[in-house]
Amino acid sequence: MHKHADIIAAHARACVGTRFRAQGRAIGIGLDCIGVALLAAAAAGILFDVPLYALGGDREAQLDAGLARQGCVRVDPPRPGDLIVAAPAPGRRHLGVMTSAGVVHAHAGLGRVVEGPLDPEWQIVGAWRFPDSEA
Questions:
Q1: How far is it, in rounded angstroms, from Cα 72 to Cα 16?
Q2: What string of pLDDT tens digits covers the 135 residues of the chain?
Q3: What are phi and psi of 95, to 5 degrees?
Q4: Residue 71 burial (10 A CB sphere; 0-12, 13-18, 19+)
Q5: What are phi and psi of 76, to 5 degrees?
Q6: 123-129 and 112-116 as β-strands: parallel, antiparallel, unpaired?
């Protein structure tokens, strides 16, 4: 488990209820799945960026390489505070932050950030531990 897992998970939870907004980066105004991950990591002092904004298409290998290049470590199983990569549909990727109650993620279909189990049809295709904080 990451040494700041509690901070990461708590800050992800602070995003719950914020409306979904593509490329959104502000709690209470609008967030997408990448925004949730970036803000949760930043709360623990982690300088983190998601490479290749587009999570669709044939970019899974590029996403994995970018996460590894930033110091993230692939883990199995994911624990609270870890970043998950889910596949809501073939060729699509979605990010979320694990908590003790499930996953916090910006759900476009529901129009807001939620916490709980993922849709049972979504497959978790990767789990990553954030790098140690810079702070």
A1: 24
A2: 889 999 999 999 999 999 999 989 999 999 999 999 999 999 999 987 775 555 666 677 888 888 898 899 999 999 999 999 999 988 888 999 999 999 999 999 999 999 999 999 999 999 999 998 654
A3: -105, 150
A4: middle
A5: -160, 115
A6: unpaired
Using DSSP, state whether 75 is helix, strand or coil.
coil
Tokens, residue 79: 């624990």
Rounded to 5°, angle at Cα 15 from 11 and 19 = 170
AA letter at 97: V
How far is Cα 56 from Cα 112, in angstroms, rounded to an integer? 20
CB count in 10 Å sphere of residue 92: 13
Distance CA 76, CA 91 (A): 22
The encoded tokens of residue 58 equal: 């044939």
